[in-house]
Amino acid sequence: MADGAVAAGDVEAGDVVAGDSGPVSAASAWREARNVAARARLARVLPAVFPAPVLRHALSRPLVPPTPRLAVESYWRTHVLRADHLARTLAARSGPPEGWTWRLGGVPAEAPEGLALSFRAPPSPYREAAHARGRGACCVCGQPVYRFGWHRDLWGAGSPNRNASWHAACVAAWKLWNAPADHVKLLKKRQRHRCAQSGKRLLRTAEVDHRVPLYRVWREHRAAPWPVLLGYWGLPNLQVVNRTIHADKCAAEAGERASARRQITGEPG
Length: 269
Ligand SMILES: [Zn+2]
Hints:
The protein is mainly alpha-helical. The chain contains nine helices and two strands, in the order ααααααβααβα.
């Protein structure tokens, strides 16, 4: 099981596998031997029906994922922007649960189960105990989960996988929503390495920013329909900007928040 314990994501996409003509280092020989075993194992356990793009992706990895489940996870981890779009599309299919509104947990010890304590966390009604749809439904989007965490019943099972409680795509999206800075490379590439505010070339120190800051989402847009809300954490609201511009934007936002607080509390401005 030594080979099975290595996930494809442990290797950066940019890693280079030594070509046949080059000197074969111990590392590349190890990797090749490991990939032969991984491909054999994957071929042995792969069902007759399997998403073709996921298989293509798996076989082209520097470290081939040895199981269908790992192949699916690796696929969405790499195509995280696609995952973001899919997760929000699936959420739109579910819509918000009856009677749900976006609330925060308040005091941690007294917060109802599943309620986020901060407006920085994406609202997730199906993670709240009161609205959870149970096993076989994705706690991020609310839709049924099938084999390998897939979102469609490609296998004609007729019912969801009761052992699953999230889609592999939704997990990837959730990670993006909660830590977009981890994906700065991908987001930079999408902007063709241009600062979203100044249009200048993005520097190495460029940072990920929410166009509409999350405190304003909570303050001004919290009544928006739930799937629309998720867009504020996803790609539609993410941009990469150079650090100095980001610092200026954050300072302006902090000033704006302070002045809003003064208005509420009646403190002299
Ligand atoms: Zn989902």
